[in-house]
Amino acid sequence: MNKYIFIKLLFILTPLCSLAQPDSIKATTTTQNSSAKKWYENFSIRGYAQFRYNRLLETNENLGCEQCDRSWGDDGGFFIRRMRVIFFGQINKNVYFYIQPDFASSPASDRLHYGQLRDAYVDLGLDKDNEFRFRIGQSKVPYGFENMQSSQNRIPLDRNDALNSAVANERDLGLFFYWAPKDKRKLLSSLVNDGLKGSGDYGIFAFGVYNGQTANNPELNDEPHVVTRLTYPFEYKKQILEVGIQAYTGKYVVPKSNLTTGVKTNPDLNYLDQRIAATFVLYPKPFGIQAEYNVGNGPRFNKATDTIEEMPLEGGYITLTYFAKINNQILIPFMRYQYYDGGKKHERDARSYIVREYELGGEWQLNKNFELVVNYTMSKRRYEDFAKQNNFQQGNLLRIQAQLNF
Domain for residue 380, yes or no? Predict the structure, then answer.
């Protein structure tokens, strides 16, 4: 009986002892439990989707733009331009990861909505504030402001030909070093978070080595490209400006699968691929200017000799914007002019281009989750390869995009 009485007393006294614990002990226990994050609390998920229609007021169904939007022109219809889900997180004080697949990739004009990896990288910080960090994996090559700028934030529907022709899909596999002091990292992030169309935090100084064959393509010559970028955002009175310079060099191998039978090439298919570009940005508060220009050398089809040759290139763009907040909605009208005279190494026969294009439109942000862009394009494009040696197309079209942010 004594044994059973002892057990009963134990059940009665245990909760009483718990109630008698000092508040400091209870608080410590609660704090420890709340600070211990679950594994799934160390990363987040977000994404966006873009739906387009480009055929309104179209004047030339033969006008196309392979690099920017394959639903231009004949047989183009309603089109999912991007469908992206992003997984990211600071899983350790000095370790950050970012993975972004796109479920609307188009490997060919008659093949739509394929899943393809866009980004997959890890940032390794070297100090307590991660001012010095290495980025390992597939990510954007730090060349050009608009190339760095997310398509989710960019106002014109497509990137300019002049700088975007440097790196298809803006990405490659490599190792990159970024540095920016803590206050500049905060500023770079705020330019995106505050809706001012920033490029994101790619450091004040960047240096890297990468394969040079563009994203999701194997290395073909064991000679990595080298890139460097220096950019500096700063506040002046009530304005925010950014100036930058960037350059890269390497040898690009024209893939055999991109060659038309009969076109002449270098024996080893290797071509010098190098550029330098300057950037100027006046963030829209409320009037904005964004301008870039680059020069360099790269592979380009020469119709006079039916040969892919190493040739000079140049081109750039200027975009004017105005930021207007109306009640809880945002309207950003814009104008852009772009020019490019050069080759596109990743297209058929390193296709030769001369582009002159005007765009006029606006972005209407109904709320943080939905945006509508209307863009009227007036384009003159000469794009020639071995099969199409006198291909000049001129035309206008009205383009519409609905974007969902989640």
Answer: yes
Cα separation, 307 vs 350, in Å, equals 10
For 2, the 3-state DSSP assignment is helix
Instruction: Tell me if 302 is assigned to some domain.
Output: yes
The pLDDT of residue 5 is 42
Contact assessment for residue 106 and residue 68, using Cβ atoms and an 8 Å cutoff: no
Please give the torsion angle defined by the CA atoms of residues 302, 347, 138 and 192, in that order, rounded to the nearest 10 degrees.
100
Q: What is the 3-state secondary structure (H, E, C) of 84-148?
A: EEEEEEEEECCEEEEEEEEEEECCECCECCEEEEEEEEEEEECCCCCCEEEEEEEEECCCCHHHH
Structural domains of the chain, count:
1
Mean pLDDT of each 10-residue bin along the chain, 406 residues long: 41 40 43 60 94 96 92 91 96 96 83 93 97 98 98 97 96 98 97 95 98 96 97 96 98 97 97 98 98 98 98 98 95 98 98 98 97 98 96 98 98
- Strand-pair category, 95-105 with 44-56: unpaired
Q: Is the pTM of this model over 0.70?
A: yes
- Print the domain residue range for 275: 60-405
288 by DSSP, 3-state: which?
strand
Asked if the structure places residue 30 within a domain, the reply is no
Q: Tell me, what CATH number does 112's domain have?
A: 2.40.160.10
The verdict on residue 113 lying in a domain is yes
CA 142 to chain centre: 10
> Residue 397 contacts by C-beta under 8 Å, 6 or more apart in sequence?
54, 55, 56, 57, 58, 59, 63, 72, 376, 377, 379
Here the tokens at position 273 are 């691929």
The per-residue pLDDT for 38 is 75
